[in-house]
Amino acid sequence: MQTLTQLINGELSGATTIKISEGLESFPEQLFELTDTLEYLDLSSNKLTALPDDFNRFKKLKVFFVSENRFAIFPAVLGKCDNLQIIGFKSNLVTHIPNDAFHANFRWLILTNNQISSLPASIGKCSKLEKLMLAGNRLAALPKELANCNSLALLRIAANNLNMLPEWLVEMKSLAWLAFSGNNMINQKVESVAGVNIDQFQIQQLLGEGASGTIFKATSIDVNNQDEVAIKIFKGSVTSDGFPEDELQAYLAAGHHPSIVKLKSVIDLDEQGKKGLVMELIPAHFYNLGKPPTLNSCTRDVFDEDFKLSEQQLFEIAISMASVGAHLHERGIMHGDLYAHNVLVDDTGNTLFGDFGAASRYDKRDLALAFYLERIEVKAFGFLLDDLLSLCRANISAHDALCKLRDLCLSEDQQLRPGFNEILTELTLLRNS
Questions:
Q1: What predicted TM-score, i.e. pTM, was given to this entire model?
Q2: CATH numbers and ranges of domains, the chain
């Protein structure tokens, strides 16, 4: 992170990346001295309310983050920034987006946790848009022009005021990861497990952190039951994926599956109803299959160059995940984040899957909706299978058949995509052949 003093003193001349967070109340004019070089600008966690009208002078700017500021209007000048691809306006006060504020080159747009009640029709010209984050707003409808965003693969619309998912939305050919919980579509509570008090555990080291919460290793203080567990503490009222309460409800509704990380109990953290989860502690020999997408890969996971899988691991992982997909959709649950970075495996291919932060429940009685939502998640599985094939070092005897199955899962025609039960049957046959 750089400082405003460095900028003023000319110490940042020629910089391609700038990050300044010092409670700025106005845009630093000295940044315009970097118009020929600046590609990445992060002014998050300041007090900005507007951008200069000539902000588009930054001809090389590709990435712009201004989260946790005080913008009430999304700056129209961003629609004039020809090379801008990634824009982050999370946790501002945005209520209005001008119709000319969007550009066809936008790839990743983050508007999480604002006060947006409508999107302009010009969203439809964002033909390269792959990732759209809208959780935690006031949207009661989505513009039909969004259907023109033919590259859109990941959409977060949880924690809004939507009454339904438009037919054109669930039929979008590129959509693979969708989160829509916390709207007005379904209100099915499931029976909760007994809550326990956080004081019943001794918190130990940090294990990890995600969009919705932080996970710690802990031990029960009960001398008769000193089990080691993992405790997830939710961060706040809304995340990039939705409400913590919806994650809890989806986890409970999922029930038991051998490849889903077991939920042991719910923790009551305070009198305001804040909660956490007590989960089984994953054995130390498990590791994350992949790493989350980068700014460059956008919607696709990344992997270490020297990481490889055996044929046995490929089949075990693929079959386990297809089984999880079938299990969840039979219960009217869309996971919404079926990614390698959420999959834990060991050297033999044993698989564990969790993180229900983006999970959404739907009415299985709506057969058309159920069909399309499962096929959206099948596309995500197709990308996972593609990753597995690229990582396998073995000369797989069923390689051509696996590639054919992958291609069906990724088909632009949702009618051609198999369901998870069909995928599970096919994978089992290929493994045993």
A1: 0.94
A2: 1-152 (3.80.10.10), 195-280 (3.30.200.20), 287-432 (1.10.510.10)
